[in-house]
Fold Pvc16 N-terminal domain-containing protein.
Amino acid sequence: MSNALAIAHVTQALALLIETNIGPETDMAVKVEARRPPAEPSVDQPTISVFLYQVTPNVSQRNNDLPTRAGDGTLIKRPAAALDLHYLISAYGDENELVGQRLIGSVVRALHEIPILPKDIIELAGEKPYLAASDLAEAAQRVRFTPTVMDIDETSKLWGMLHQTPYALSVVYQAALVFIDGRETPVPRKPVERADVRVLPFGAPGAPRPGGGPGEGAEPQEATPVPVEAAAAAPPAKKAAKAPAKTVAKAPARARKTTRASKSAQSEPRRGTES
């Protein structure tokens, strides 16, 4: 977590990181500036410009500090803005000796070799008078640089924003993650005054029943604390045994047929015999 000077501190530290890691491949005095690309670049002086062209909220950490206030507006958590910084790094020099390309190669090699901003570079950049109040060196989250891929259309739009600035060979990097803390101090929450935990088995006075609430017609009584050991040792309530279903014995099939035959014989009228 850092204060509002973190953005400027990262920009200055990035320029210092590039300046100290130009490498032995470049046998010339290179000037590294934390500014926008020049409108009239000098050919005689090899120059690298580090330009912060955009600041965006970090997608994964932008809402981690919510909620910061209670319903009555009281601050319960210090807000912290999570930001990503987008840099345009350009190189200038004599084109006959391919100075710009040589410098861009050194920049890519340095940031690929050291992708995380070292603490000693942060402390060295913080020696600037205008960054004396910055606390970026104490932040737990280190800033990481990753290259950004941009096509021709996006590159054209980016350089189109730089009015009257000629295009130069450049690379784009994203710095993540930078936190900026708020200044207000949260109100401490009230401590728990008394913890009251009771364990009651079902059926004890004042304990809820499985159906919910005390029984019908029963007045709620004050619950009596029961030790945890006694509650655990109490046997579970047995369920009422179900009454066996009544079964009706069926008569044998032969008996049913005999009964039907006798009934049909009784129902037919007797016929007289002719002499």
Remarks:
- Residues 6-20 form the longest helix (15 residues).
